[in-house]
């Protein structure tokens, strides 16, 4: 896993974060980006799992 990025989003009364991480494919060795929009409390768990 390489770099990671987090952006804060605000929609109405809810506060959300968009997290982007780069994951290496085991088959081809190419890197892909995985994006997710979630609560700020869940960001550490998102980056911790592979």
From TrEMBL:
It comes from the Bacteria. This is DUF4295 domain-containing protein.
